């Protein structure tokens, strides 16, 4: 019920794959994350909810949130007055049969009562969405770029940075399936409480 209530504010997820793409990768690939997203759980349509460390299985990727915390600033980046930085580490495994194009806007953050407020990651991309902040340089070498690609059966982890109202701690990170033919699939949510990190992190 919660997932259905939140789905209305998800717009423009940029993952594009042929309809019906599924998991069948067999080759091994090095992982830069401590969590192994290759397990025996099969994909089932319908969306899912989870928490930090849980693996969510979508139609063409598995993903997990492995860490999350807030800070007043990050390196040289300072948010607007009244805001803070939310840092979320995610791990992603391409379970499809083609290289997977990814965008930082494939993941969205929600907060507030019923998680009705939302925002996109701080990005280095030239074009930005509403509720998105652009930075001239990456905040961290581990930051997921505006656009990247994950090879078949390869796993990648990285950081997403969000500018959110100061004082918040409860969030939901969301991912929505979107297919090449324009079909919109299921929505997946990871719920977490972000620990308060150092005033300035990097």
Describe the protein.
By secondary structure, the chain is an all-beta fold. It contains 1 helix and 14 strands. The chain has one helix at 2-6; strands at residues 48-51, 56-57, 61-71, 73-74, 83-94, 100-103, 107-111, 117-119, 147-150, 155-165, 170-178, 184-193, 195-196, 200-201. A 5-stranded mixed beta sheet has the order 1-12-11-7-8. The radius of gyration is 16 Å and the shape is globular.
Give descriptors for this structure.
14 strands, 5-stranded mixed beta sheet, mainly beta, 202 residues
Structural class: mainly beta
Strands ordered across the widest β-sheet:
1-12-11-7-8
Residue share in helices?
under 10%
Main β-sheet, in a few words?
Answer: 5 strands, mixed
Return the string of H and E elements: HEEEEEEEEEEEEEE
Q: How many strand elements?
A: 14
Kindly report the oligomeric state of this protein. single chain
Distance N terminus to C terminus? 37 Å
Helical segment count: 1
Give the overall shape, derived from the CA principal axes.
globular
Radius of gyration of CA atoms, rounded to a whole number:
16 Å
How much beta, percentage-wise? 35-45%
In the predicted model, the low-confidence regions spanning at least 5 consecutive residues are 1-32
Average residue-wise pLDDT? 83
Write a concise synopsis of the structure shown.
By secondary structure, the chain is mostly beta strands. The chain has one helix spanning 2-6; strands spanning 48-51, 56-57, 61-71, 73-74, 83-94, 100-103, 107-111, 117-119, 147-150, 155-165, 170-178, 184-193, 195-196, 200-201. It has a 5-stranded mixed beta sheet with strand order 1-12-11-7-8. Strands 2, 3, 5, 10 and 13 form a 5-stranded mixed beta sheet that branches.
């Amino acid at each position: 019920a919660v997932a259905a209530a939140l789905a209305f504010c998800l717009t423009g997820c940029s993952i594009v794959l042929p309809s019906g793409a599924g998991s069948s990768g067999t080759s091994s690939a090095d992982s830069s994350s401590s969590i192994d997203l290759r397990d025996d759980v099969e994909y089932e349509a319908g969306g899912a909810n989870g928490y930090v460390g849980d693996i969510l299985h979508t139609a063409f990727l598995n993903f997990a949130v492995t860490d999350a915390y807030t800070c007043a600033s990050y390196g040289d980046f300072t948010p607007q007055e009244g805001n803070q930085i939310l840092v979320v580490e995610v791990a992603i495994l391409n379970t499809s049969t083609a290289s997977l194009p990814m965008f930082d806007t494939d993941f969205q953050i929600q907060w507030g009562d019923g998680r009705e407020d939302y925002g996109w990651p701080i990005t280095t991309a030239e074009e930005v969405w509403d509720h998105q902040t652009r930075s001239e340089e990456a905040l961290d070498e581990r930051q997921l770029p505006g656009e990247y690609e994950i090879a078949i059966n390869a796993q990648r982890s990285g950081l997403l940075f969000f500018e959110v109202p100061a004082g918040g701690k409860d969030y939901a990170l969301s991912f929505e399936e979107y297919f090449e033919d324009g079909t919109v699939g299921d929505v997946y949510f990871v719920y977490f409480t972000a620990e308060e990190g150092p005033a300035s992190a990097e």
